[in-house]
Amino acid sequence: MKLDSNNHSVFLLQYHLVLVVKYRKMVFDDALSTYAKDIFLRLSKNYNVTLMEWNHDSDHVHVLFKAHPNTELTKFINAYKSASSRLIKRDFPQVKKKLWKEMFWSRSFCLLTTGGATLDVIKKYIENQGEKRGAGRAKSV
Q1: Rounded to whole angstroms, how far apart are CA atoms 26 and 36?
Q2: Is the CB of residue 92 less than 8 Å from the CB of residue 32?
Q3: 43 to each of 92, 104, 120, how far by Cα in Å?
Q4: Are 61 and 55 contacting, i.e. CB atoms less than 8 angstroms apart?
Q5: Helix, strand or coil, per DSSP, at residue 132
Q6: How much is the pLDDT for 111?
Q7: Is the Cβ–Cβ distance between 65 and 44 less than 8 Å?
Q8: Which of 38, 66, 70, 105 is within CB 3.0–4.6 Å of 50 for a Cys-Cys bond?
Q9: Strand partners, 13
Q10: pLDDT attached to residue 108
Q11: How far apart are CA 37 and CA 114, in angstroms?
């Protein structure tokens, strides 16, 4: 597993983001998905975000990305949703006809953390800290 780093820390912050089209309207095709992905790539540079994987269904997108500890995730996601909504409606007028109001994305989003180890593995690692040096073991919370 390769870790990221900056001047003061080492980290691996990966996220799975799901964005849903307002009213679950089925508007995504390959062309719209590619366009939305390109907007994500352009905006991500300003927020220390790196796209790892992108895919879509007809009414939502799945995004796997990495971020830095200083990234304000909600700010980035809202900036992306705002910019992409405006640009998609401008450049894909057929989409605008399918939506009842001005918003393209649903107000909500799903953001999940990901990692290389399961919670059980991490808990066991933390539980076993200090055992090799003979230090006392703290009780689980």
Answers
A1: 15
A2: yes
A3: 19, 18, 35
A4: yes
A5: coil
A6: 97
A7: yes
A8: 66
A9: 67
A10: 96
A11: 20
CB 105 within 8 A of CB 21: yes
**In this structure, how many other beta carbons lie within 10 angstroms of the beta carbon of residue 39?**
16
Torsions phi, psi for 110 (to 5 deg) = -115, 125
Structure tokens at 10: 């080492």
Backbone angles phi, psi at 51, to 5 degrees: -70, 130
Q: SS3 for 127?
A: helix
Residues facing 113 on adjacent strands:
15
Number of Cβ within a 10 Å radius of residue 10: 9
| Pairwise CA distance, residues 116 & 114, whole Å | 7
φ and ψ of 108, to 5 deg: -90, 170
Burial of 133 (0-12, 13-18, 19+ CB in 10 A): exposed
Residue reference for tokens 């390109």: 38
Q: From residue 27, give the alpha-carbon distance in Å to each of 77, 90, 97, 127.
A: 20, 14, 10, 48
Distance CA 10, CA 68 (A): 10
